[in-house]
Amino acid sequence: MAVLITGGAGFIGSHTAIELINSGKEIIIVDNLCNSNINTIENIKKITNTNSIPFFEYDCCCKKNLTKIFEENEIESVIHFAGLKAVGESVEKPLKYYSNNLKSTLTLCEVMSKFNCNKLVFSSSATVYGSPKTVPIKENFPTSTTNPYGTTKLMIENILKDICLANPDFSVACLRYFNPIGAHRSGLIGEIPNGIPNNLMPYITQVAVGKLKILSVFGNDYPTHDGTGVRDYIHVVDLAKGHLNALKYIENHNGFETFNLGTGVGYSVLDIIKAFEQVNNIKIPYKIVQRRPGDIAECYADPTKSQKLLNWKATLSLEDMCHDSWNFAKLAFN
Question: What pTM was estimated for this model as a whole?
Answer without folding.
Answer: 0.95
